[in-house]
Design goal:
The structure holds two protein chains of two kinds.
Chain A: E1 10-14, H1 23-34, E2 38-41, H2 48-57, E3 62-67, H3 72-85, E4 93-97, H4 101-110, E5 114-117, H5 122-134
Parallel strand pairs in A: 1-2, 1-3, 3-4, 4-5
Chain B: E1 10-11, E2 17-18, H1 24-29, H2 52-55, E3 59-60, E4 63-64, H3 69-81, E5 86-89, H4 93-97, H5 120-126, E6 136-139, H6 145-158, E7 168-170, H7 174-179, H8 188-205, E8 209-210, E9 212-215, H9 217-221, H10 226-246, H11 251-255, E10 258-264, H12 268-289, H13 295-298, E11 302-306, H14 318-332, E12 337-338, H15 352-369, H16 382-404, H17 408-413, H18 416-433, H19 462-478, H20 481-496, H21 502-510, H22 515-526
Parallel strand pairs in B: 3-12, 4-5, 5-6, 6-7, 7-8, 9-10, 10-11
Antiparallel strand pairs in B: 1-2
The chains are: A alpha/beta, B alpha/beta.
Chain lengths: 135, 535
C-alpha cells in the first residue's frame, strides 16, 4: 500500500498476546516518531483481530508486532490471517522481539515482510519502514 | 560516568556530581557521619543485621518453573536434592494474567515461560511431598496473586501445615506491573485494594509469610535512574502501607510483610550508595512518618542482583565480567538475597551453562574474594558516606516531587510515570547510539567482525499444552458445579461489600474454581484495567 507523499508514513506498533515487555516497543514508537512518522501504539494485550481492525481504521502503511514471550509464530499467523480476512493483506507486517534465526524464514513464509530480532538497530527499522512507504 | 573532557563535571546516571577527591570537609558539608550508626541498628545504613554475612552469607536464589505442574514438580525435587533451600516459582503468562489454559487468550502460551496453574489440583501436584516448613517457596505472581496465594494457602492447610507458622513469599507488587512487566488484570485502585487484602490476611493469619516484594527492579529496567528506582519503590511500599492503615491495620504488622527487589547495573559506587541510602531513608520513613516501633518493620530487606538492562548483545562474554561487578555491588550494598543475571540473557533464554556461571560468580564472592569477611566494608569512606548522604537527599527529593504530583497511584493510573520512564529509556538508547553513554563493545572497542549470536528459545510443546487443557476439563467435569457457583457468588458478594476477598477466594479454589473463574468473578465487580497509552 503506497501513500500519497503529502502525508507522513503511518505505522501501527502492536503488542499482541500476553507479553508485557513493552520497553522495546515504546522505544521503536519514539524512534519512528522522531523520524517524522505518525505512530499508533496499541498498548499491551492487543488481540489479533483488534490489531487488524486498527490497521485498517488508522490507514497505516506498516504494522509492527513486538513479541518477547516466544509466541511470535502463532501470534503473527493470526494477525496475518485477520488482515487477510479484512482484505488488508497488502499492509506489510514486520516482527520484532526474541525471534530465533530459525524462525525468520517461517515468519516470512507466513507473509511477514521483515524480522528485527532483539538488538536490531533503530535506524535499520526506520529505514525499512520508510522504504515500504516510498516503494 | 558521563563526564567528557577534563574540565566537565562527572555526573552519575542519577545526576549526582562526583568530585575527584573526597575528604572530611566534603563529608561534613553533605551532613556528616552521625547517621551511619551500627549494623543491625536504626537507621540500618550499614545493614539490617549486626553481623551480616559473617553470621550468614547472602542467600542465592535462581528462578525456575516451566511446563506442567508435573514437570515443575520434577524440577523442584531435583533442585532440593542439589541443596536448594528455596524455590522461586515462575508461572506461565496465562496464569499470571488470570486466564485459564483453554482461554483463547492463552493459545500458544500455556506452560511457555513458567508453570501453568488452572486449579488447586495443579498446585497440589507441583508441591507434592515438598516440606513447605523447610523449603521457602517464592511465588512470582502479581495480577493473579489472589487466586494463586489462595491456592497455596489452601494446599498448605490441606497438607496439615499451620498458616500461623508458614513461611514463604509472594511478589504481589501490582503497582510496578502497571509500570513494567504488565501482568495487570484489574484497574489500579481495586488492584491496590487486593494487595491490601493479602497484607491484612497474612498479618492476621500467616504472620511469618511475606506477602509483598516491592520491585524497583522492573521500574529501573523500564527507564528509571537508580535514584528514581529507589524512590518509586519506596513510594509503592508507602502506598500499600497507607492503604492498609486506612483499613485499620497497624504499621508494624504491615511493614513487616514488605520486602524489596532491586536492580543493579551501571556505576558500582552509585549502586552501593543507592542501597545504603535507601535502607536508611526507609527506616526513617517507617519510624518517623508512620510511628512504627518494631525494628523489623523498619528494616529494608531485599533481593538484589543484576541487571539485564546493563548487558549487551555485542561481545556477550563481557557480560560475565559485568555480572561479577553487579554481584559485588549487591554484596557491598548489603543484600539479603542475590539472584544474578546470566551473560546470554540479553539475546536469549539463559542456557544452563550461563546460569551455572552466575551461581559460581556469587559463590566466588563468598568463598574466595572475601565479601563475607566483615560487615559493610566501605563504611567510613569519605566518598561513600558523602555520596550515601547525597543519594538519600536525592531519593527524598524525588519522593517529594512525586507527592507534589499527586502520588504514585495516580501517576501510574494516568500513565504519566510510564510515559516519563519510556522517554528516559529512549533517550538512554539514543545517547548510547551517539556514544554519549560509554558502552564497551557497543560504542567503543567494537569487534567489527563479530558473528551474530544465536537466539534460542525453549521449544513450545503443544502436546503438553493440550494435556494441561485436558486436565483442566477433567477437573471441571468432576467437581461439584453447585459448590463452585456458590463460592464464586460469595466471592463477588465479598468484593462488592468491600470486604477482604481472601477467605472467599480460598473457599472458591478449595471447591476447584479456576484461576480464570476467580479473576472473572472479581472483574465482575472491579472491571478490567484499560491501559492508558501516553507518550
Amino acid at each position: 500500500m503506497s501513500s500519497p507523499s503529502s502525508r507522513p508514513p503511518r505505522v501501527l506498533i502492536a503488542k499482541p498476546g500476553l507479553d508485557g515487555h513493552d520497553v522495546g516497543a515504546r522505544i521503536v514508537c519514539r524512534a519512528l516518531m522522531d523520524a517524522g512518522m505518525e505512530v499508533i501504539y496499541t498498548g499491551l494485550r492487543a488481540s489479533p483481530r483488534s490489531v487488524a481492525a486498527a490497521a485498517l481504521q488508522e490507514d497505516v502503511d506498516v504494522v509492527g508486532l513486538s513479541v518477547l514471550s516466544g509466541a511470535h509464530m502463532p501470534l503473527a499467523r493470526k494477525v496475518v490471517d485477520e488482515l487477510r480476512d479484512a482484505g488488508a493483506l497488502a499492509i506489510p507486517v514486520i516482527v520484532g522481539g526474541t525471534v530465533p534465526a530459525s524462525d525468520v524464514d517461517a515468519l516470512k513464509a507466513l507473509g511477514v515482510a521483515a524480522v528485527f530480532p532483539t538488538g536490531s538497530r533503530l535506524e535499520d527499522i526506520v529505514a525499512f519502514v520508510r522504504r515500504q512507504v516510498t516503494a | 560516568m558521563t563526564g567528557s573532557g577534563k574540565d566537565a563535571a562527572l555526573l552519575w546516571e542519577s545526576g549526582l556530581e562526583v568530585l575527584p577527591v573526597y575528604g572530611p570537609e566534603e563529608l561534613e558539608r553533605s551532613g556528616g557521619s552521625s547517621a551511619v550508626g551500627s549494623p543491625g541498628e536504626y537507621p540500618f545504613t550499614r545493614g539490617i543485621h549486626p553481623l551480616m554475612y559473617r553470621h550468614r552469607p547472602f542467600t542465592l536464589r535462581q528462578y525456575s518453573g516451566f511446563g506442567t505442574a508435573a514437570e515443575t514438580h520434577e524440577r523442584f525435587l531435583y533442585l532440593i536434592r542439589h541443596g536448594n533451600t528455596g524455590l522461586n516459582v515462575a508461572f506461565d503468562l496465562p496464569t499470571q494474567c488470570g486466564f485459564d489454559s483453554d482461554d483463547p487468550m492463552a493459545d500458544g502460551e500455556v506452560g511457555r515461560v513458567g508453570m501453568a496453574v488452572d486449579t488447586l489440583a495443579d498446585m497440589e501436584e507441583a508441591f507434592a511431598d515438598i516440606p513447605l516448613n523447610e523449603i521457602t517457596v517464592s511465588l512470582t505472581i502479581n495480577g493473579a496473586a489472589v487466586p494463586i496465594m489462595a491456592m497455596y494457602f489452601a494446599m498448605a492447610r490441606k497438607r496439615g501445615f499451620d498458616l500461623a507458622t508458614l513461611r514463604g513469599t509472594a511478589q504481589n507488587d501490582i503497582l510496578k506491573e502497571f509500570i513494567g512487566r504488565g501482568t495487570w488484570i484489574f484497574p489500579v485502585e481495586p488492584s491496590v485494594k487486593l494487595v491490601g487484602d493479602t497484607l491484612e490476611f497474612c498479618a492476621r493469619h500467616a504472620p511469618k509469610y511475606s506477602p509483598v516484594s516491592v520491585c524497583g527492579y522492573h521500574i529501573r529496567e523500564s527507564g528509571a535512574t537508580p535514584v528514581q528506582e529507589m524512590a518509586y519503590g519506596l513510594a509503592i511500599a508507602r502506598a500499600y502501607i497507607d492503604h492498609s492503615l486506612a483499613r485499620g491495620l497497624d504499621v508494624d504488622s504491615v511493614a513487616r510483610g514488605l520486602s524489596f527487589n532491586f536492580d543493579i547495573f551501571g556505576n558500582l559506587w552509585e549502586q552501593v550508595c543507592k542501597f545504603r541510602a535507601g535502607r536508611r531513608l526507609w527506616a526513617r520513613i517507617v519510624r518517623e512518618q508512620y510511628g512504627a516501633t518494631d525494628p523489623r518493620a523498619m528494616q529494608l530487606r531485599m533481593i538484589a542482583g543484576g541487571g539485564g538492562g546493563g548487558l549487551t548483545i555485542e561481545q556477550p562474554e563481557n557480560n560475565i565480567v559485568r555480572g561479577a561487578y553487579y554481584a559485588l555491588a549487591s554484596a557491598l550494598g548489603g543484600t539479603q538475597t542475590m539472584a544474578l543475571c546470566s551473560f546470554d540473557e540479553a539475546y536469549t533464554i539463559p542456557s544452563e551453562h550461563a546460569a551455572r556461571l552466575s551461581l559460581r560468580t556469587m559463590q566466588l564472592l563468598i568463598h574466595e574474594i572475601g565479601l563475607a569477611d566483615t560487615v559493610d566494608p566501605l563504611a567510613g569512606s569519605w566518598f561513600i558516606e558523602t555520596m550515601t548522604n547525597e543519594m538519600e537527599g536525592a531519593i527524598a527529593a524525588e519522593l517529594t516531587r512525586l507527592d507534589a504530583g499527586g502520588g504514585i497511584v495516580s501517576a501510574v493510573a494516568e500513565g504519566r510515570l510510564q510515559a516519563e520512564l519510556s522517554r528516559q529509556a529512549y533517550d538512554r538508547e539514543i545517547r548510547i547510539a551517539r556514544g554519549e553513554i560509554p558502552k564497551v563493545g557497543v560504542n567503543m572497542f567494537r569487534d567489527d567482525e563479530e558473528a551474530p549470536r544465536p537466539i534460542e528459545l525453549h521449544r513450545y510443546r503443544q502436546e503438553e499444552a493440550d494435556r494441561q487443557i485436558q486436565r483442566l476439563h477433567h477437573v471441571k467435569a468432576s467437581r461439584d458445579g453447585g459448590a463452585v457457583a456458590a463460592t464464586l457468588d460469595a466471592l463477588r458478594t465479598a468484593a462488592r461489600a468491600g470486604q477482604n476477598v481472601m477467605p472467599a477466594a480460598i473457599d472458591a479454589v478449595e471447591a476447584l474454581a479456576t484461576v480464570g473463574e476467580v479473576c472473572a468473578a472479581l472483574a465482575d465487580v472491579y472491571g478490567r484495567h484499560r491501559e492508558p497509552v501516553r507518550f
